[in-house]
Amino acid sequence: MDKLKSVLSGEEGRTQDRTVLEVANEASTLGWGTRMKGFVGCFVVGGVCTLLGVCVLFIPRIGITLFIVFYTLGNICALCSTMFLMGPIKQLKRMCDKTRALATTIMLTCLVLTLCAAFWWKNFGLALLFCILQLLAFAWYGLSYIPYIRDAVLKLVAVCIK
User: Fold this and answer.
1) Dihedral angle sign, alpha carbons of residues 21, 27, 28, 33
2) Torsion over CA: 101, 104, 110, 111 (sign)
3) C-alpha to C-alpha distance for 4 and 138, rounded to whole angstroms
4) How many other CB atoms are there within 10 angstroms of residue 22's CB atom?
5) Tens digit of pLDDT for each residue in 80-125?
6) CA–CA distance from 93 to each of 12, 69, 88, 89, 144 (Å)?
């Protein structure tokens, strides 16, 4: 049916020039209400995972591992929730903007390194350090969406250090 529509509208040649990302973006168009529901749902799941991770932290033997898994999963869900608001392609492009590229790189690297430290290296101190770095990088990334707030935070830190 789509092929017939493209032939009738004269866009048949254009369909061959589209990238995979453009096709995926067109196929995933959602209404505003659905986007808001997806955002809230995914964000709540992320928050619940993070809180669950904190709650299981004090279980003997497996508590720290469960905390790391739930905390990292919660951050991933919270990050993916914003993709519902602006779409995955636009979100990925914004994540790679020059103002967010460093925070995005550190955040994603810490997500991976947290899991590596917990499961492959079995170094829970290092995993907790990466969890803290995840939190800081995620906060810095989130602040990048508010104009001039990162400059204000840097000035506040400079004042506090003096």
Assistant:
1) positive
2) negative
3) 45
4) 12
5) 998 888 888 888 999 999 989 999 999 999 999 999 999 999 898 9
6) 27, 27, 9, 6, 14
